[in-house]
Amino acid sequence: MYGLINKAVEGLVRSKFGDAAWDKIRTRAGLPDEPFISMEMYTDKSTYDLVGAASAELGAPAEAILEEFGMYWVKYTGEAGYSELMKAAGKTLPEFLRNLDQMHTRVKLSFPQLNPPSFSVSDETPSSLVLHYYSARPGLAPLVVGLLRGLGDRFSVDVTTKTERVEGARPHDRFHVGWKTRVGVPA
Ligand code: HEM
Asked: How many domains does the chain divide into?
């Protein structure tokens, strides 16, 4: 994956746990003490190793690290250089979720080697939908849960998710997503 991702993992760890924690995690993951370059490709293994090392150093399951990172990613891209792309993707949670593939297609204009996941939406009601998540990479459903929670914060709604693995011809993860406007926040 592009260095942008590892760089954001580093940003999350440094801001939440400090520089010493980051040094331990980076060392445990076997990565050199060099800055990540956003536009350069790194192996997926380096990212999985970082998550594994963070899990071991911080004493939290890998799923919790991925979820935390998903929440952080929405904030990070909303603020740092990608805010226009995020804004263009939608003004409400369901609109945004319907536009995820289009958003990554736009990201691909700047990151030509991007190998993004694919999402589709079904079973929409005024307060729920089903999000289908297709990826070539295993084990990232908890990341999507965190992304959905982060998007909930972005749109000031409380989000509930229920994850299901779908096997068969096109294996994927299915998220039953519900949302409620936060108390005190105008709809
Ligand atoms: C403008 C904001 C965003 C940018 C710049 C961006 C960019 C990226 C990049 C660079 C990757 C790594 C893939 C690669 O390098 O081949 C990635 C992966 C991913 N993105 Fe985005 N993304 C954005 C927003 C989102 C949002 C809001 C979601 C919410 C669902 C999302 C879901 C994912 C997931 C789940 C992956 C993991 C890879 C996989 O599943 O195979 N992204 N994205």
From this structure: 2
